[in-house]
Amino acid sequence: MSREGVIAFLVYTSLVLMSFLERMSDSVQTFVYNWFKDQRFMCAHTLYPRLEESNRNNSGWSCWTVSLLGVIGLAAVIRFAGIHSQSFFYDEAVSRELSFHSFQDLFSGIARDNGNPPLYWILIKAWSLVFGSGETALRAFSALAGVACTALVFLIAKEFFDERVALIASIAYALSPFSLELSTEARCYAWLQLVAAASFYCFFRFWIRHQARWLSGVLLCTVLLTFTHYYGFFIPLAQMIILLTFRQYRKLLAWLSAMSVAACIFALGWLPVFLAQIKQPGNGTRGGSSWMMQFLSTPLTFAVGRSLVWKGSLSLAGLGAVSLIVLAVFWPPIASFGCDKSRDSRLRFALLVWLLLPVIVPFVVAISGHPIYNARYAMIALPAFALAFGAGVAHLASRRQVWTLAAALMLVGVSLGLFYTHPIKQDWERTTAFLASDLKAGDVVFVDPDNEVVTLDYHLQKIGLPETAEVGIVQTGNPLIGIPWFGGHKLASTPQDVAAAIRTHQRIWLIITAENYGDQTDLSALRSAGCNVSDSHHFYRIDVFKFRCSVL
Question: Are 219 and 82 found together in one domain?
Answer without folding.
Answer: yes
